[in-house]
Design goal:
This protein has about 180 residues and is of the alpha+beta class. It has six helices and eight strands, in the order ββαααβββαβαββα.
Length: about 180
Amino acid sequence: MGMYLENKTIRLRTVDRGDLKALSLMMSNTDIARLSGEVYPITEQAMEEFYEKAQKTDERIWFLIETISSNKIIGETGFLRIFMPWRTADYSLIIWEKDYWGKGIGTAVANMMLDYGFNYLNLHRVAIGVVECNKRAIRFWKNMGFLEEGKQVDGFFSQGKYSDFVMMRMLEDEYRKGQKDRE
């Protein structure tokens, strides 16, 4: 089990093949999957492909979110579509276990990942896409300092309805200013 980043309560670690069963059970929560844009069932082959992608770090750096007290996997986070010539990446964070929502874990994970992205990977731009009907996520990312920069109108379809896909970003100087403001 590769440990990478941690604080007092959570650990971000690399994905092991032995994690796939627990992860696929979590990912089968259709309510949360819908909010994250997943529409297809999780198959063994899909999990194997996820595992293979998670092992490569040229375009993707992926971690499982695990509690330190119980070593329980509660979510996943990572950078994808990394393009170092432009120093850009897309970011993803999903806490699959609802019991851990509203406890500051998402904020802690996002802070660790943004620190890693801007201060270790030397990224200049981190982008996320959020389904507009997920108001909780929109508030969260704005509170983290991400700025809305556009919408893909009707870019998301779920349960017979379209929703806009909100594009948000944080630049390196915005991250550094936010860090200074928090000091």
